[in-house]
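Complex 383.
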Amino acid sequence: MSRHDFQIPVTFHHRVVFTRNAFHPENRALATLLHEGGGRRALVVLEEAVATAWPNLTTEITDYFTRIPIACPVIQIMPGGEPIKTDDRSVRDVWKSIDAAHLDRHSYVLAIGGGAFLDAIGYAAATAHRGLRLIRFPTTTLAQDDSGVGVKCSINAFNKKNWIGTFAVPFAVINDFSFLHTQNEKTRRAGLIEAVKVALVKDRTFFEWIETHLDALAALDPSTLETCVEKSALLHVHHIAEGGDPFESGSSRPLDFGHWAAHKLEALSSYQLSHARAVAIGIALDTLYSTRSGMADASVTQRVFKILSTLQLDIYHPALDCRDPSGRRCVIDGLNEFREHLGGDLTVLMLRDIGLCTEIHHLDQSLLDTCIDELHSLSQSGT
Ligand SMILES: NC(=O)c1ccc[n+]([C@@H]2O[C@H](COP(=O)([O-])OP(=O)(O)OC[C@H]3O[C@@H](n4cnc5c(N)ncnc54)[C@H](O)[C@@H]3O)[C@@H](O)[C@H]2O)c1
Ligand SMILES: [Zn+2]
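Predicted structure with nicotinamide-adenine-dinucleotide bound:
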């Protein structure tokens, strides 16, 4: 026998920009990035809802490209939202466009849309020619404060979230705040949940900032919203770049507090429940579990629930009460699916305090049932 082990170190450059009106002729953020990367071709894939909200955008993009040495890109408009992740049809459409436009690995795919859209288009870009350069333009609160700056892309399969996908560091992310203000108010507010999550698990000072600015956030005051989005995005990126496990090869997923239940609830509701609203419920459940199991003080739950209710996020959904033929709550299967998605031992984050977490490897099913019952009755009493 002969065995030879090698280390293959690879360094990624993750470029994250915050700006406004990225396609205004005087905004050089994108031009500078393209100049840094070289390459001559680009494909722009634009989410339909964004194209509708910004009717001049395609003209602005075309004009922008006349001023830089990259071929005027084809602009492909496609519907987004969670349905784009249902199957691989959109991914195949993007592959076709990439092939027709003769893009190569030095070319760019500019994806402009919400988190679901970016996940699907990102997956197409990451797999065509084994990876084109992706420039993400997240257009929702959630996509700007979390998913857009991440290094994952995926579509759903087997009625499970994000089952098909890959890790791929984007060439760049341009968080253009202007896009945020055309989403409907409910979606804009709900997307703040990932900022609440990252503050809760990683940064007590940011959590207190959210508490102090809660009314302004709920009122969607533009500058408070943008500050919150930027703080949250940077906390996510710092964790990815410096946390030691960007491609999640270990057992824990410190940015996924509340997500084991959230992903299952999305699937159980046939994706009628949005990711943001499902995460709010997942966070409510794991926060209450942290308190009821004695890991965290009751005041932690009170503070988290106050934020959720001010942001008009529910703490209960009927999908929590779907049961299998044995009477067991189906959401509890989310724990095993969460473990299976990642591999290794089941590892779920729980709270000890605001900004202080602990990992556990077993959840007590009857305590989970009690917590879900409590969420139900609290939601009925309007708490
Ligand atoms: N890859 C990751 O690391 C990661 C992390 C967190 C979440 N996600 C994924 O992100 C998705 C959720 O993203 P989301 O909350 O952005 O939802 P979304 O992409 O479904 O968008 C929400 C709605 O807003 C519309 N929209 C988007 N931008 C708009 C704009 N500027 N103006 C008007 N309407 C607009 C969309 O058409 C959609 O109807 C989920 O699929 C989730 O799994 C991925
Ligand atoms: Zn999430």
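The chain has two domains: 15-182, 192-380.
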